Amino acid sequence: MADKVASTEGMIKFALKSDAMEFIIATEGELTYRLGKEVPGKKFYSIPCAVCPTMKMIDLKKVHDSLLNLEPRIELPQEIIDKARVHWRG
Q1: Is 71 among the domain residues?
Q2: Among 71, 28, 22, 19, which residue's Cα sits nearest to residue 46?
Q3: Looking at the whole model, is its pTM more than 0.70?
Q4: CB of 6 within 8 A of CB of 14?
Q5: 2 falls within a domain
Q6: What is the pLDDT of residue 89?
Q7: Domain membership flag for residue 34
Q8: Are 70 and 85 in contact (CB under 8 A)?
Q9: For residue 49, what pLDDT is reported?
């Protein structure tokens, strides 16, 4: 049971918009540190044994191999690339 199930960015956006002042974060404990920095004035509680299996799939060897081989390759439509560039530049 949860008020919100979301990605890391989704959780940050939810906390920013929410009127609540305290949150229990049931994923990687390190997220509570980031939330504390990005959403000042609100309190975040982690669950010490919580683990996100998706995040655990990424390790330094996989990041290294991906950068070295530029794989897996992700292809996006030009329209999405253009929108991302506009958003990124502000």
Answers
A1: yes
A2: 28
A3: no
A4: yes
A5: no
A6: 66
A7: yes
A8: no
A9: 84
Please state which of the ranges 1-5, 36-40, 67-71, 76-80 shows the lowest mean pLDDT: 1-5
**Number of domains, the chain:** 1
Average pLDDT of the residues of the chain: 88
Q: Which domain holds residue 59?
A: 8-89
For helices 30-38 and 8-17, the axis angle rounded to 10 degrees is: 40
Alpha helices in the chain (DSSP H): 8-17, 30-38, 53-56, 60-69, 78-89
pLDDT at 90: 59
Per-residue burial over 8-38, b if 16 or more Cβ lie within 10 Å, else e, is eeebbebbeeeeeeebebebbbebbeebeee
